[in-house]
Every structure is written in structure tokens, then in C-alpha cells.
Design goal:
Glutaredoxin; 9% strand; alpha+beta
């Protein structure tokens, strides 16, 4: 097995492919991480304060969230990509280990993001769609020699995240699903979408009533998740797998209110888009010939940096740069301009032969590039044009030109750096050595995943007593220790999400209202009159309430804790005086059947509420007064 895996890894390292998809994956992944950090910052009092606004967490948490957001943005933009990837991984690790995110506010995708964050430290994702390309080009280019990062990466860089981040998750998850009755009935997507806590604001009732379609979707998901890891490597299956996966996770986003998980999985599919699709898209969007030719001074370092910057951001390749010393004779529109004037300004010629110079050239460049066209048009406005011209003249008239001497060449003994080669040497030297190390690491990862799947998805589900004897107890302790380590550092963890042991018997949900000055009930902006968790309380806040506070076996201590958090957070946000406000806890009966029932969504939304208790605040302390024994109610 080791030899076969080594050969596969070696072939994956030898075959070079465009870095476009990898760069877009990094960009999208960084944006998903950034939006989640913004979510954490918005709900920082609810998530991190023991009692929101009353018993506050350390202020350093807020600072670390800001630093984490900066790291995620740098990762998305590809600025100091490797350092940003390391910082993002460490922040995700620290927050999921040492804050309530790990248990009370588990977003359902933290381990996915953790594992992919670790992989991004080693993947050369800065080779496409990154500011590092421009930064390194500026740093290492001279007027005689331009430096650019390679635009290709080993194809293994695409397969590793897909296999480890998606394939292992799918395979572990589908094993768990096979033990869930409603998933075996093909109703895996139908049941959560019919329960108020989990449904999105979109009315999907018409779709949920088509029983054959719902069963077909359920069975397709099971088949897809089982086959993904094994069919991923075959070209003929890649596009069908991609289309099914995109549909699956887009469906999660629009039908359930756990959109961060949907987006976190969805962005990985940038790695499955066929390379020819990117090339076709590029040919479609780019003009047959440049819309503008720009002539620049080839002996001017500042001009060189300008050219490199514009070419970097000119994604549609609408501008073509030509050196004056080399190409001025081929531009009839510039024949009447003295050489001294040509070298003193930046000149451009469009397709119609119109000539531009100075600030007008930059404005025309922005218009030709399309997406910054508004900025280019703004530069022509009265007032702004005058300011822009003054700035341009100050820079252009004071720039330094290099003569044709040794100052144009790289410093003696200096070689152009190849970041990928440096990282390759750090990972393991020669191609064979790297393949050997990567294959060994993959064996370790595979063992950790098999231990996780075998322990919880098979033995636990089958009811096998792994502690029946002393040897079994030792193996169980070792297995749990491995799972704890892989869960913490690699994101390898069981994925028994939304199965029968969560939904079966989930027959009561809770909401909270407060009484205004006139004694009228006002719903907190948390759970609405229908029982749906409303925006922005989705993602990990939804998980806190629907998966931890309110379950089929309601624990009074957990309920007391989270009612305290919710009332303190939203009460303070609404400007209520907690000591003078009465919060009423309401209960609604719902149904979570394991087989098909028509009209289930309408039934669950229409059920009436009843008062079951009050939350009373006095001097910063809350007392939960229950009229019914919710623990006994949920046990029934």
C-alpha cells in the first residue's frame, strides 16, 4: 500500500497544472473565514462573555478577533500568504480549543476549516490571484529582467484538499447516515427542512411536498458521499461529482439556516472545476486584441513597477504595454512627439488611434480594464482632474532613470528566488523525497480517519461494547486519545450531523418573549412566532440554541445557562432594563417523524405556543421559574 501511495503522490507532484483554481479556492476560503470572524465579533458578548454585558470576557478576545480578521483578509488577498495561513490556522486552533466555540457554539464546520487551514500552509496557493505575485515581482525585478512566480502547481495540490477535507468527511458522514432510519428512508434533507428551528426564511414547502423528489435527493446524497472519495481521481467522473456536490451544498445554503457550513464546503469545489473551463472563460471575457497600447520608459524603475501593477490587476488583458526604446518606431501616432517628451510622460494609443498622455493615460487604462471604469471616469471630473494632474507631475518629474550600465543588472551573485522551490526544499528536498514524506503523512492521516470512523461510525453504532475486557479498555482509551488529538489539530472528527439520535423524539421547541410597559408580549429577535430562528442568529448561534440548549432531552442546567445568555444579550441590545423586564419562556409541540408525512412543515409552523416559565432578572442575577418539568416532558 505504501508503495502504491508513493507512486500516486509522485505522479501528482510531477504533473504540473494551472494554479487558477487553487488561487480562487484560497481567495474564497479566506472570505468565508473572514465573514465567520465578523459573525463572531458581532456576537462576541453572547459567545465569549459568561453573562453577556454583565460578566464579561477578557477584552483581549476582541483584539484577537480583529487580528484574526486581518490574517483571514491577507489569506484571501494572497498577501504574505504563508504567514497569513499559519496565523489563520493558529487562531482557529486557539479559539476552538480555549473558548466556548468548541462546545456551546460549535458551528458545525470548525474542524473542516481547521483542516483546510492547515493544508493551505503548505499549498502554493499564492501562484494565482494573489498580491504576493505583485509584491515579489516588485521586489525582485529589474529594468533588464522581470521576475514572476510560476503559474503552475503540482496537480496533487488539488487532490489533497479534496480527498482530506471533503472525501474523508463525506465517507465518515455517510457511514453514520446508514444507521439513521429517516436517512435510510431517503428523507435526510426533508426532515430538518420541515422543523422550524432548522428551516431557512425561504418557503420551500412546495418542494418538500414532492415525496418522490425528496427521496431521490436523499438517496442521491448517500450515493454521492459514498462514491466521492473513490471516484474523485477519474476525469470522467469529476464533473458529475462537482455538479452534484455544488447542488448539495447550495441546497444547504438556501434551505437551512446553517449557511456557514454550506459555504465552507462549497468553496472547495473551485478545486474541481476543469482547467479548460477556466481557459474558455478567459478567452470569452478577454478581447481579441488589446483595447489600449501603453508606451513606457524601459529604463525607469518606477515605470516598471507601474507596468507590473497594472498587468497584475488587468484580469481581462485589455492593456498592452510596450517599451518606448523598443517599440516607439512602430507607433505612427507617436511620430510627431520628440523623444524627450515621450520619456517624460506615459503615452497610450487606443484602437481608433486616439492618443492620451499623463493623467489621461491612467484614466483610460482604468476604463479599458472595465471593473475600475468608474474610478477612471471620476479622474476626468473637474477638480479631481486638476488634483490628479498635480500629483502625477510631481511624481513623473522627479522619478529616477537608469542608464545602460551595470546599475541595471541584478546584484552580483544574486539569483532570482523561487518561493515554491524554497518551500519544496524545506518540505523534503528532491521530488522523490517529498513524495516519500507526503505519502507517509497521508498514511498517518488515513489511520487517524479510519480510527475515527471505525470507533464511532461503526462499532458505536452497532452497539459493540469496546470495554468488555481489559484489552478493549486499553484500545478504547488509545482510540479516544487519537481522536482527541486529530480532532484538535487536524480537524479529523466524527460527523454524525443531524441524525436520528438528534431528531427522534425532538417534539418540543422553545421561544422567548418579553413584556413591554403595557404588558404586551414582544418576541425577542431570536425565535419568531412560527418557531423559526431568525437572522442574524444563524450558524453557531443557531447551533447553541437548537442543538445544545433545546434537545429531545432538555437539561434544566443547560437551559438555564442559555436562557440567561440570550435574554442578557438581546435584552441589552434592545435597550431593556433587565431588572424591570419579565421574559416569558414559551413552548411549542412539533413532530419529527422518521418517515414521510405530508404537510409536515405547515403543521409544525402552525402549532400554538404555551407559557411554561419566566426568566426574572434581579441585580445581575437571573432566576428561571418553570411551570412545567421540561426534563420529564422531553423524556416522555
Amino acid at each position: 500500500m505504501q508503495k502504491a501511495l508513493f507512486n500516486l503522490v509522485l505522479r501528482g507532484l510531477e504533473k504540473q497544472v494551472p494554479a487558477t483554481g487553487l488561487g480562487l479556492f484560497r481567495l474564497a476560503f479566506g472570505l468565508v473565514a473572514f465573514q465567520e470572524i465578523c459573525f463572531l465579533y458581532y456576537f462576541r458578548q453572547l459567545i465569549f462573555d459568561p453573562v453577556p454585558y454583565l460578566d464579561i470576557a477578557s477584552p483581549s478576545v476582541h483584539l484577537f478577533l480583529v487580528l484574526w480578521a486581518i490574517a483571514a483578509l491577507c489569506l484571501a488577498l494572497g498577501l504574505y500568504t504563508r504567514l497569513a495561513a499559519i496565523a489563520n490556522y493558529l487562531f482557529w486552533l486557539v479559539f476552538t480549543v480555549f473558548t466556548p466555540m468548541w462546545k456551546d457554539f460549535d458551528g458545525g464546520f470548525d474542524q473542516l476549516m481547521l483542516g483546510s487551514s492547515l493544508l493551505l500552509i503548505f499549498l502554493p496557493s499564492e501562484r494565482a490571484w494573489s498580491l504576493d505575485r505583485l509584491r515579489l515581482a516588485w521586489r525582485h525585478s529589474t529594468v533588464d529582467r522581470c521576475y514572476a512566480l510560476p503559474r503552475t502547481v503540482p496537480v496533487l495540490c488539488y487532490f489533497l484538499p479534496l480527498a482530506v477535507s471533503l472525501g474523508f468527511i463525506y465517507f465518515d458522514s455517510v457511514i453514520h447516515k446508514l444507521f439513521a432510519e429517516f436517512w435510510r428512508n431517503g428523507l435526510g434533507p426533508w426532515l430538518p427542512s420541515s422543523l422550524p428551528y432548522y428551516m431557512s426564511p425561504l418557503d420551500m414547502g412546495w418542494l418538500l411536498e414532492i415525496e418522490p423528489l425528496q427521496r431521490a435527493i436523499g438517496y442521491t446524497i448517500i450515493a454521492f458521499q459514498f462514491a466521492f472519495l473513490f471516484l474523485l481521481y477519474f476525469r470522467r467522473f469529476r464533473v458529475p461529482l462537482m455538479l452534484v456536490g455544488l447542488s448539495l451544498h447550495a441546497g444547504i445554503i438556501v434551505s437551512l439556516n446553517i449557511y456557514p457550513f454550506g459555504f465552507g464546503m462549497l468553496v472547495h469545489y473551485f478545486l474541481m472545476v476543469p482547467f479548460r473551463w477556466w481557459r474558455t472563460l478567459g478567452r470569452t471575457l478577454r478581447p481579441a486584441e488589446p483595447a489600449l497600447q501603453v508606451f513606457y520608459d524601459e529604463r525607469c524603475p518606477l515605470c516598471l513597477k507601474t507596468v507590473l501593477a497594472i498587468e497584475h490587476f488587468d484580469v481581462f488583458r485589455a492593456v498592452e504595454f510596450r517599451g518606448l526604446q523598443t517599440h516607439a518606431a512602430t507607433a505612427p501616432a507617436l511620430e510627431d512627439i520628440p523623444e524627450r517628451d515621450l520619456l517624460g510622460d506615459l503615452y497610450a494609443v487606443d484602437r481608433e488611434g486616439r492618443r492620451y498622455s499623463g493623467v489621461a493615460t491612467y484614466a483610460r487604462i482604468l476604463v479599458a480594464m472595465r471593473y475600475p471604469a468608474l474610478a477612471g471616469l471620476a479622474m476626468r471630473l473637474p477638480g479631481l482632474a486638476t488634483i490628479a494632474d498635480r500629483v502625477y507631475r510631481r511624481i513623473a518629474d522627479n522619478r529616477v532613470r537608469l542608464g545602460c550600465d551595470a546599475s541595471c543588472a541584478p546584484a552580483p551573485g544574486r539569483t532570482e528566488p523561487d518561493l515554491a522551490q524554497r518551500i519544496g526544499r524545506w518540505v523534503g528536498g528532491s521530488l522523490q523525497q517529498r513524495a516519500n514524506r507526503i505519502s507517509r503523512m497521508l498514511v498517518v492521516v488515513l489511520i487517524l480517519q479510519l480510527n475515527c470512523t471505525l470507533h464511532y461510525a461503526i462499532l458505536y453504532r452497532l452497539g459493540v461494547d469496546t470495554k468488555a475486557n481489559e484489552a478493549g479498555q486499553v484500545l478504547t482509551m488509545l482510540s479516544n486519545a487519537l481522536i482527541s488529538a486529530s480532532h484538535t489539530f487536524l480537524g479529523i472528527t466524527p460527523h454524525p450531523l443531524y441524525l436520528h439520535d438528534h431528531f427522534q423524539g425532538y417534539e418540543h421547541i422553545l421561544g422567548i418573549v418579553h413584556l413591554d410597559a403595557d404588558g404586551k408580549e414582544r418576541w425577542l429577535p431570536f425565535v419568531d412566532e412560527e418557531g423559526r430562528i431568525v437572522s442574524p442568529n444563524w450558524g453557531r448561534v443557531h447551533s447553541m440554541w437548537a442543538n445544545v440548549a433545546v434537545t429531545r432531552h432538555m437539561d434544566p442546567r443547560r437551559l438555564d445557562k442559555f436562557v440567561r445568555k440570550v435574554t442578557a444579550f438581546w435584552g441589552t441590545r434592545l435597550g431593556l432594563d433587565l431588572n424591570r423586564t419579565t421574559f416569558v419562556l414559551k413552548l411549542k409541540t412539533v413532530k419529527a417523524p422518521m418517515d414521510w408525512e405530508p404537510g409536515l412543515r405547515r403543521y409544525n409552523l402552525a402549532q400554538p405556543w404555551e407559557d411554561v416559565g419566566r426568566a426574572v432578572w434581579r441585580d445581575g442575577e437571573m432566576r428561571l421559574e418553570l411551570d412545567r418539568d421540561l426534563e420529564a416532558l422531553s423524556a416522555d
